[in-house]
Amino acid sequence: xxxxxxxxxxxxxxxxxxxxxxxxxxxxxxxxxxxxxxxxxxxxxxxxxxxxxxxxxxxxxxxxxxxxxxxxxxxxxxxxxxxxxxxxxxxxxxxxxxxxxxxxxxxxxxxxxxxxxxxxxxxxxxxxxxxxxxxxxxxxxxxxxxxxxxxxxxxxxxxxxxxxxxxxxxxxxxxxxxxxxxxxxxxxxxxxxxxxxxxxxxxxxxxxxxxxxxxxxxxxxxxxxxxxxxxxxxxxxxxxxxxxxxxxxxxxxxxxxxxxxxxxxxxxxxxxxxxxxxxxxxxxxxxxxxxxxxxxxxxxxxxxx
Length: 305
Description:
By secondary structure, this protein is of the alpha+beta class. The protein has nine helices and 16 strands. Strands 9-10-11 form a three-stranded antiparallel beta sheet. It has a three-stranded antiparallel beta sheet with strand order 14-15-16, covered by helices on one side. It has a two-stranded antiparallel ribbon with strand order 1-2. α1 packs antiparallel against α3 and α6 crosses α7.
């Protein structure tokens, strides 16, 4: 059903290739017989998943929980049978597109194993966003929520809301700041044997409760945990505050060159839907249109740089 153990897939010669081809042919027939439900899951991408969609994903990929590797079982687009699925990103983790849904490999793995999307954010226990072994994946809420109280946190640490730094109250003669910056850019702290994101601890320290959803860094700097730089956000609001991608070639967020029309085009993505704003003679005009539309759709969470 899409999950394997040990060496889940071996590409060899002779009978091994023949057996793989038989498996793939059977999976392709399964997919062709399934009704199209991709558009529904693309809009949802959290909580309970359509059983047919789960079957489509499981028919397209095989997962090795001991290595964390997803392997293609179909030829579709850039996917090739036997190749590892997804493109690595040091901060966002391995990205993968399957059945018209673009998300992280960790979320696809959770879907394959549990039959539903994770209801809250996933975290990698060792801090390595590319280590997708099943033992390294866990729900953020169940791993941190309710394990430490505000009183206990204040007993152990002092938080400076103006610098965003924590210092230990005892055994820290030089008042050195606590926490380790991980590859994702977030600062993590070990408290009573558990790893916590420092910005969530800051929220607990000041307000006395765990945030029910995500915490967004207003200026986009994940290590800047000043309380004035933190705010509650859902998935879409947090994504709206993302910076311009490094792959951008126009110099302006949301602006691309349209080769067919020989004009600059502006478009924006919101709530998993892409809006085509228009075509413009200059990139500055396109960017101005993008900024206006971004503020209309995303409000205070809109980030245009």
